[in-house]
Structure formats: structure tokens, C-alpha cells
Amino acid sequence: MTAAFSAADSTAENPPIPDLPDDATRVIGEAEARQVAEEVANLFRPIAASAYGATIEFDPDDWDGTIGRARSSVHAGRIWRITPAGTIFNPYLTRDVMRLLVCHELGHFFGGFPFKPENTPGATVADAGTFLASEGSADYFATKECAWRVWAGDPNNPAFRAVVPRAGREKCDNAWHDQARRDVCYRTLVTALDVLRWIAYPMDSDIHGPRIETPSTEVALVTKTAHPDGQCRLDTMVAGAVCDKPNDLSKIPGLVPSPVTGQYGDHSVAAEQDAAPYACHDGPGARPLCWFKANMPGYVPAACTLPEGGVCAEDGSGYWVCDPIQDRVFTPCSLGCYYDSESQIADCVT
Fold first, then answer.
1. DSSP secondary structure code for residue 150 in this structure
2. Could you tell me the pTM of the whole model?
3. What is the pLDDT of residues 103-114, one digit of tens each?
4. Where are the beta strands (DSSP E) in the chain?
């Protein structure tokens, strides 16, 4: 089974699709997934070590786990850990999909503002070196800062010119004048679509799911820090792929203390202003309104008394976490909620 495209995708308007490289079509198992994950992480380990004194590692014991798919966590001694699970393996996991998934997890370390609400704000980052970025920030980082580093100079990139959806091709062509960078952009968007198919399997029968040409019309009243819906996630990855604002990997955008609380990791005006130079704010490269609310007010101490990592709802339909803006936020879970006793974090079963 091919993960991205097949003859079934051809129509009168779309002629038969040429062969794509193995990396985009062949389903992989654990050994290759581990290899790909290490290759992507190796691109970021030097800057993690030199700029933050941090070590990026993969949990060696949880690749056969059955709960969740992947998560990132920060530990004492500046250990930045990615924990995959056996449920990542499905008919849409190719080398390219695995690359973008690891890029997303790395985005939790490097992506910065807005941050995840389950972070515990503190007066220093000495022990961790970073605060985990929100899901939207991680998706944005994956395609804005990680994907082009992964695929730069790959001779397979031109093959994606023939298969990227027309709307995506137009966005890439308008954003980049260099054909090599356009080719990376095409590949990134094709892989982003495959990532959404990977996420939807096996619950969603419409494998075409979210589309580049039908962006979300939702406008968030406040910034969402959990996973938005599939269309919103695709919109975010498309935006990252066409944003030309450079990032400085030696700086976590927005990791500055709040002038109100003195804490790092808060949602503050100071954090948003500090992160502003590293994101696009207008046009196709701007973070989508379906999850990102610009110019939100600074932190207002909330009365929320939930545990730091959140709690599952009594009926298992989702989980609650404290949020500095909304007091508390509920995230629905289609497959139920689980609570990881080791990390003390509530999350959706995926």
C-alpha cells in the first residue's frame, strides 16, 4: 500500500501520477523509524548542546508502547526527550512522514511561544533550558524550520513537482523564487497531507481529508494550545512552509519572563513581542486564525486548581488543563483519555 498517492488519485483533471521516491511511498517498520528519527534529531543536537547545554534523546524502551503515538518532555539536567509508541506504525508511516513527525516533536523544544499550558512557569529555565511549545507552534516549526533542513539538496525533491496539489504549488511558487527551495516546499506539503492521513487512520474513511485549497474559516477567540482539528493543522503546516522569516535556533522565541509575574513560560505580552520577529504575521505564511489569536492580553492569575498535567474527564471523553487565559480548557478525545502516571500528564488516546 502506498502512503501518499496511488493510481486511484488520478482523474480526468489529474493525469496518472508518476512514481514517487521510496521515501514517500514505502511503509516502514521500527528499525527504519528509529534510523530516520535519529537522522533528523542529529541535525538539531549540535545546536541543542551548544546553545542550551541540552541533550536530545529518544526513550529507548517505549517504541512498542500501545498508548499515545509520540510526546515530548523536558527533564532535569536539560534532557529533551521524545517518546514514540508502537501505535505510530500504520499503513501511512513512510520515511518522509516519520521525518515530519520528528520535526513536530522537535518543535516542542525549539518552537517557543505560544507555550503549552501544562508547563509549570518558573523564575528560571536553568534546569530545563526551554519550555514546551504549543501544538500549533510545533506544527509551524516542523515545516518552517525543520523540513527544509531535512530535505535540502535531496535529489528526490524535483519528483514532487508533479504531485503537489495546484493550490500548494501556487503558494510555494509565490513564496520562493529559487527552484530548489520550491521543490522542498512541494515535498513538505505533500508530506503534510500524508501526516494528516497518518493521524486519521483508521478512524477517518475519507483519506483525502483536509485540503490545501479549503483552509479553515474558524477564528479562535483565544489562542489554542492543544491540537486543533486536521484542517487547521494542515493550514499551519502550509503556512510554515511558505513563511520566509528566519529563525535563530539558538533562541527560543518568547522565552522571556513575564513583567507581571516574573515567570518564564507564561502567556504574556512580553513573550509575544519577543517571538514576533520569528514568525510571519500577514499573508499565506501567518499562523492561522483557527488556533492563533494575536495580541492577547498578558497573564492574569487564574483560580484553576487542577493538577499541572491536567485530569481526564470522569466519562473519559477528554481532559481538562489549567490555562492562564481561560482558567481551564477542555480537549475532547475521540478514542478516550489516559493519564500517564510517570509524566503526570493527561492526554488523548491516539
1. H
2. 0.81
3. 999 999 999 999
4. 55-58, 70-75, 79-84, 311-312, 318-323, 327-332, 337-340, 345-348
